[in-house]
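# nightly structure sweep
# worker-07 picked up a monomer target from the shared queue
# config: single-sequence mode, recycle default, output format = structure tokens
# input follows
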Amino acid sequence: MDYLLGLDIGTTSTRAIIIDEDGKLVASSIKDYPLITPKPGWAEQNPEDWWNAAVYTIKDALKSSNISPKDISCVGLSGQMHGSVFLDKEGKVIRPAILWCDKRTKEQCDEIYKIFGYDDFIKLSYNKALQGFTAPKILWLGK
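# output follows
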């Protein structure tokens, strides 16, 4: 029988599930990690925590199910969006990830609108300059 593995890397925890071909839950595992809030409105996490939680929950779900990894025919992934992980030239993480719910970049959003104009930025990007998005975070990091 083939099994499916689902992995969700969320804001406060990572969850892994294994289901059979009929959609019946066979095993699940969850691992929490901290949300770092060094200042009001700031939200960060250590990307290493995501990796460690993913490895742990997958191994734990496989162990509790007694299913061989060879019997997993498909992996489905989901997770939080707009978490910015900044790397050095060697690909090493240089600081905690700035999450989607972080609100530190209001000044940078205003700067984007000042440079491009509100309507022109929307036409260019098809989005508003929102505090949780990547461009304002890059500007914040560079200041």
